[in-house]
Amino acid sequence: MQLTLEFGGGLELLCDSIKIHKVNINLPNESDILTMKDLLSWVRTNLIKERPEMFMKGDTVRPGVLVLVNDCDWELSGQLDTTLEDKDVIVFISTLHGG
Amino acid sequence: MEASEAKSKRAGGSRLCCICNKRRPVLKRPKTLQQICRECFYEVFEEEIHQVIVQNRLFKSGERVAIGASGGKDSTVLAYVLSELNRRHNYGLDLFLLSIDEGITGYRDDSLETVKRNEVQYGLPLQIVSYKDLYGWTMDDIVKMIGLKNNCTFCGVFRRQALDRGATLLKVDKLVTGHNADDIAETVLLNILRGDIARLSRCTSITTGEDGPIPRCKPFKYTYEKEIVMYAYFKKLDYFSTECIYSPNAYRGFAREFIKDLERLRPRAILDIIKSGEDFRIATTTKMPEQGTCERCGYISSQKWCKACVLLEGLNRGLPKMGIGRPRGSVNGDNKHTKAGSTAKSIESKQCGSLDF
Lengths: 99, 357
Prior knowledge:
The complex is a heterodimer of chains A (99) and B (357).
Chain A: E1 2-8, E2 20-24, E3 34-35, H1 36-46, E4 56-57, E5 60-61, E6 65-69, E7 83-84, E8 89-94
Chain B: H1 2-12, E1 27-28, E2 35-36, H2 38-55, E3 64-68, H3 73-88, E4 94-101, H4 108-122, E5 126-130, H5 131-135, H6 139-146, H7 151-170, E6 174-176, H8 181-194, H9 197-202, E7 207-208, E8 216-217, H10 225-234, H11 252-265, H12 269-279, E9 292-293, E10 300-301, H13 307-316, H14 343-349
Parallel strand pairs in B: 3-4, 3-6, 4-5, 6-8
Antiparallel strand pairs in B: 1-2, 7-8, 9-10
Helix pairs in contact in B: 3-10, 8-11, 8-12
Protein name (chain A): Ubiquitin-related modifier 1 homolog
Family (chain A): Belongs to the URM1 family.
Subcellular location (chain A): Cytoplasm
């Protein structure tokens, strides 16, 4: 599955200062569905190069990190249960910095 | 056809925006848990801030107002929204951007570039005031002397004065800052955790310093940080977003973490903490500091010398511990008990979060 991941609000510093990542993700075994939960786990393993606690807390994103799937708040699509499709754009924005 | 239907079904459920009932929702408001579309979000966001301004009588027509601008998300959105509302509702304000250069390499110099772009983008004249000019010390110099603990104490105290000095230079009547609901809830919590009753009684006021040199107000007092970020994102506003390199040890970090966890469970908690803060009443038997003026510089102060003068004196005399910790003598800045040689060590060994002002 081809996805575009964007990191903002300082999160890009955790992935080699690259804001936009175009990735290809294999679906988890025995499943034809990719959820945000699966994606987060993949991101933590493959994209986050330092200080993973800045991005995730437990299974989900650290409180203070906003997630948008196709420019839409993931709170509307079920947060971790959101199902992803080919060519989706997922944006992670951290709010945890000075204003 | 089927694929895009399925996509939009997934995105907002099969629901439509709560307000207009026409468009696909893009955001769930933490304040109200409503699902709203982009256009309605812009409207309610801007309208609510306008109502806060009007109901709290924050401005008078003809006033010169400086916006404390750091290039960060809150001040950028503030500059954008305030100039928009000023136009739309004819507040009659003369708006300026005021930026403080603390002298933090790799952090402040980058964010100042953002403010310079904001000056052009929003057409608002910019004034920059630097710690170096005002105090003779940059934050980089200060941190070299005192180490990585208690930096925020110095920076915060100096910044407040720097904003007032800058406001005087611009000859403005008022200062506005982008402090949002999350910030204020954190501050209420911080003051409770530290037993700082004097600050607790003031920190939820939307306008402060009316008896001082320049009054300052916070139009975003009831605005959620999440919404500010989403507004900036959808409107593609240009802002700078990195954590200050000296901040990881700040005590406020703990309050912030706690507030964010709370918000996840019950988003309304943020506004409710502010409400609790507004309704606190201090026991009449509690002794509160009296307000006077600093003997050295004339700035507002509850002690003989204002905190900035005490800290500066400490820096200039190579006694960075001066002004940090509970006052031992009758007057703060009375440092007969401090040994010059051991100060650098003792400030670093101080437990983070154990400072008291």
